[in-house]
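fold-stage: in
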Amino acid sequence: MKTVRWFALLITATVPVSTALFPAAAATPSENADAVIVSQATVDDITREITIQPGGSTGWHYHDGRVFGVVREGTLTRTMKDCSVVVSPEGSAVTEDSGADHTHIGRNLGPGPLVLWVDYIEPAGTPLAVDMPDPGCG
């Protein structure tokens, strides 16, 4: 619950600065996913609202920095590099560690839109996500 309040405070204390599409992965592109920048405190601290439509995905990727988020609507189903599956229902806090060892894909397997609020704390000058091929999980 503290995570949800933190994000609510962050959102109400900032003004949207721009919009951007979720980065498309070269090897495994995102599908039916888009993102809007909600706030940008510094060049390496960005919060986005990501919406993934039913059947959509983020594409396989990893992050150079830490990622913290909350599932606002729907259910996030992540498949990790070792092919394990993590299911996060509405209201769940989500964290992702940095580096290629933490490659994953996020999917919306539900009937309605999946909405995430995600805070990226990335090293300056790095992309929000690094595209990767499917590690063999399908």
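fold-stage: in (second)
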Amino acid sequence: MLRQVNLVSVAKAGILGTVIMTIIMYGPPPLMGNPPMDIMAALGSVFPFKISPYIFGFLVHFGIGIGLTFIYAAFFYGRLPGPTWLKGGLFSLLPWLFAITLLGPSLQLAAQIFGTAQSGPMANPCAIANPCAPKAANPCAVANPCAVKTQANPCAPQTANPCVAKPANPCAPGAQAQSGIPPQVLSLIVHVIYGAVVGALYRPRV
């Protein structure tokens, strides 16, 4: 099987499949919900480098896309039924199952190994720039200027509080995408599209 693997076709199919998958993942909210699936930030944040996590996240994300295409070409292309796009779509169920079950624990383990576990939960869209996260420099913590004021109190509860749990609040436990579609289903959609593109484009060595 390995002799029939066309590495050039693997690279082309893997890159294009990953590009299309990424465009959909980072697409406008009506397509994939709000917030987007920020997989590159999740992947890149496990590395202890003092640069943007998107740089390493981009490399890891596309490396995984190409690597999965190689696995498909080497071990699944000749064994799955149906047309080529269906072969790829069926294969995509395996990385999807990994993504919804083991990706989070794997990233947590990698973060502990690299010493970046305190940066926030991996694969959590609220881990970066979370407006609801507690802040160290709380102006109301010491010498509270709100203690003796009854009007214009900056610390008083507000009806438009961005940290109050809302149905569409990505920081709320168990929140779903704005479209109401569970994130597991959204993940399945993008993985199947990736697999179908890979299956349609890959051609083995003749």
